[in-house]
């Protein structure tokens, strides 16, 4: 196994444990106790986002150094190190936590945990623009978000191999685009070959999503009358 694959595997495990932490909070803690615990979860998740960001940054710097080295020969080790440090400094990208794949994975569809506390919070996804506190404090169904479109999945299909779910049309297009070399688009997933024949329906999830969307629609109608 390459270092890269091992890293992805660890990252996937970390994300899984963060998700079960979130589930435990939702199942066992009431409003008052869940707030500090959610803060801790949020901070820990940020830590992983930072690590991931630093890692990607150093990869980019390395690539640039490698390119430069191809063009010029006879550089000393010190010079190479210096070059690497310069390239790192030049990269001024910052972490957008709620946009990061790790965050999206852990909080599926919820852009910011603490903001869930505020009613009428607008989500990135305009398919539903209101979330109640109960989202985190009870076993309310959270719809899965497609890793490609980042929108709530309406027609789910599941990979038989890695069990991840995707929006049907999105993943089929994606597999076609990648020509037989499609890797599961979930960050950290070690499934390196995803094929259309691996995709199966998940009727249980489909009915939960349908119910969820119907509930959203009727809420929308209610709020329209208020306005
Ligand atoms: Zn996967």
TrEMBL record:
This is E3 SUMO-protein ligase NSE2. One of its GO terms (biological process) is protein sumoylation. Keywords: Metal-binding, Nucleus, Transferase, Ubl conjugation pathway, Zinc, Zinc-finger. The keyword Oxidoreductase does not apply. Belongs to the NSE2 family. It is found in: Nucleus. Its main location: nucleus. One of its GO terms (cellular component) is Smc5-Smc6 complex. Pathway: Protein modification; protein sumoylation. GO terms for molecular function: SUMO ligase activity; ubiquitin-protein transferase activity; zinc ion binding. The keyword Metal-binding applies. Residues 129-214 form the SP-RING-type domain. It comes from the Eukaryota. InterPro entries: Nse2(Mms21), Ubox_domain, Znf_MIZ, Znf_RING/FYVE/PHD.
